[in-house]
Amino acid sequence: MPMVLLEADVKIPERKKHVYIKQPGEDTKQFLPASNITTIPGSLSERGCSYCGAKLVIGGVLKDTIQIIHGPVGCSYNTWHTKRYPSDTDNFQIKYAWSTDMKESNVVFGGEGRLKKSMLEAFAAFPDKKRMMVYTTCATALIGDDIKAIAKEVEDELGDVDIFCIECPGFAGVSQSRGHHVFNIDWVNRKVGTVEPEITSEYTINVIGDYNIQGDAYVLQRYMDEIGVQVIAHFTGNGTYDACRSMHRAKLSITNCARSAGYIANELQKQYGIPRMDVDTWGFDYVKESLRKVGAFFNIEDRVEALIERETTLYQPKLDGYKEKLAGKKVAIWTGGPRLWHWTKALEDDLGMKVVAMSSKFGHQEDFEKVISRGSVGTVYIDDGNELEFFEVIDMVKPDVIFTGPRVGELVKKVHVPYINGHAYHNGPYMGFEGAVNMARDLYNAINSKMFKLAKRDISKGV
Ligand code: CFM
Description:
The protein is α/β, with parallel strands linked by helices. It is built from 18 helices and 14 strands. The chain is 44% helix and 14% strand. The protein is globular, with a radius of gyration of 23 Å.
């Protein structure tokens, strides 16, 4: 019975097609959890909305852009405290949140005037910022505010600004995944090709689908600098609006998060002939493999080998130290989707751990193919998992530690299982060689936390 109806789901038996336990000899032709479909009513989903996928995940990361959220103020909740993507512009993008703060009367009488006023006010408040993104939300999309027309008026009035409008309200799709898609495609169609970059190397690259979580993009930038590859644009970690307009000039796109940004890599290939190369930038062995692919593409293998040798000498002993302590420990990964297939084999190969359960909020069928082909037999694979399922699965597989977000993390703490922030990290970066060691250290610290040992003690029975 590879598809499983958990006890928590007896009242919503449709959940059976979303939960899978891999059996010996099975492959992904036979069983895949249903995914990227509407959440079943009654199942308490952990998903985000489509607007969130565009704003929180992709656009909001840019370090030089005013981000106006056209909607009730609650829609601007997803800002600095929920995602840790720093930048070298003194974290402009996480220090400020901009909302048109729509009230009931604006919903009744229209919010375009309020939007224009807010846009002008924001540009006036930040006179050195000339780039802006404007997002519709459920309320403003439903009343039909024409944000593109307003943006055009503001551009004409101010003359020296550039504005990108994202019309992807929360209800546009079944999860944040829809927001990624809309943002990618609109960006490539409306903005790429409108700025010419200064070219300083014969090797040029776009780094796609890395959002500089706790400095990931800095690590990749250092590697590219060292091997003499010019990064035309980071889409979007520590990236700028104008660099992302000049992505058409790169000779190669490397794609880390294929789920959120594979679309733009495909379009760049189709429209500009730039090859897409998928890479894994988490995990010691995977990083080596990915750097070697880039080296082979540009014929600069010797530079890449020198980098790998130095980093391996520096970090392999540290990683091995943690491997000794972590081997055999059980881990669950409950994040968006891609981190499941990036991390499962890396944790097993690099650290000797056993990944016993994985839950993807919004992965598509192709993501589950990758997860299940890299994952182990006996492991539980869940699409769009709900809270009660999580508790039941913990009981079933007894993980020593779980990668998940703070919300589910706080829940699992109550059953005395430590969690590591699998979205924004505990103490990252987690990418690259040093990142693999940071991740191992956080796993070790979580599993061996003295606090958890104390918390497990039942003081009603005496101390
Ligand atoms: Fe890509 Fe991401 Fe992820 Fe993602 Fe996300 Fe994320 Fe994630 Mo949280 S872009 S799909 S929509 S790797 S925010 S930085 S951690 S759920 S697995």
